[in-house]
Amino acid sequence: MKHLIHSDTTAMGFQIAPMIDVVFVIMLFFMVMTGTMKVERELMTKLPGRDDPTQTVCFPAEEITLGILEDGTVTLNDAAFDSPKDKALPRLTDTLKRLATSSARQKQKVLVTLQAEEQASYERIIDVLNSLHKAEIQNVTFTVGNEPP
């Protein structure tokens, strides 16, 4: 009798399922890692060195403070201008115009901080803003109340 020898010689083929699993794991790794990458941005800084003769010299901005008190008094750097009842504010407007033209000649910006007391009337604030508009001053910061110590 002849013995049949049973052999397990099945051909090992290429298994695609484990390869797909590996590809998904690698893809997941790269997707997670892209969120932790730092983005580089260009900082526009100018290092000290020779001045460019074609550039115009620009002086620092001139800062003034306009105050509006509760009684309607308007102050320019703590000096009172016009009467509290004068709606047109002619002295203040003329002073602001002279300041604006002088600063323009010197290539300076005029920065105005408008400090109104809490109980100052809105109408008076609008009067001061109209004077600034007539003087063609555009860089205005508005604060209400007293400055913190």
Strand ordering within the main sheet: 3-2-1-4-5
Helix content: 25-40%
Order of helices and strands: HEEEHEHE
Question: How much β-strand is present in the residues?
Answer: 15-25%
Q: What's the alpha carbon Rg, rounded to whole Å?
A: 37 Å
Number of helices: 3
- The coarse silhouette is elongated
Q: Unreliable segments (pLDDT under 50, ≥5 consecutive)?
A: none
CATH topology of the domain at 62-144: Nucleotidyltransferase, domain 5
Mean pLDDT: 80
Question: What are the defining features of this structure?
Answer:
149 residues; alpha/beta; Nucleotidyltransferase, domain 5; 3 helices; 17% strand; elongated
Description of the molecule:
The protein is of the alpha/beta class and 149 residues long. The chain has a domain at 62-144: Nucleotidyltransferase, domain 5, CATH 3.30.420. It has helices at 16-34, 90-105, 122-134, and strands spanning 62-68, 74-76, 79-81, 110-116, 139-144. The chain has a 5-stranded mixed beta sheet, covered by helices on one side. Helix 2 (90-105) crosses helix 3 (122-134). It starts with 15 loop residues before the first helix and ends in a 5-residue tail after the last strand. The model has no long low-confidence stretch (mean pLDDT 80).
